[in-house]
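Notebook entry, structure prediction.
Reason for the run: the old model in the group folder had no record of what sequence produced it. Starting over properly, with the input documented here first.
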Amino acid sequence: FGDYVQPPLSQGKGGKDGEVADDMEQATGREREELLAFAQNKDYFNRDPVQMQKGQGTFENPIMVPSEMEDRVVGMIPKGQDGPIWFEITKAGGVQYVPELDVHFKLYNPYV
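New structure, fully documented this time:
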């Protein structure tokens, strides 16, 4: 895996003997991080839709997608279609073209 570094393990204590564990006690990984954030009235995942403005989507004026991470999976439902088209965009890729949508996207960190 090259330079991959395993993130720290995030897990609850588990259930007590003779009891069924609740979600917080048995959740691990991202699910646990999301529950911890929710308990603090914070959002762990950004689920807000990205609104495309008129004139956006070109290479010179890509649709800006917020992310603190180096990559993000994005779904877009084209007009007249029932389901989303899913794709991944990365910061390293700069402006990225999605041919199925004929639109350009770019990640940015909203907190920098």
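Summary: The beta strands are 63-66, 71-76, 85-90, 96-98, 103-108.
The old model has been moved to the deprecated folder.
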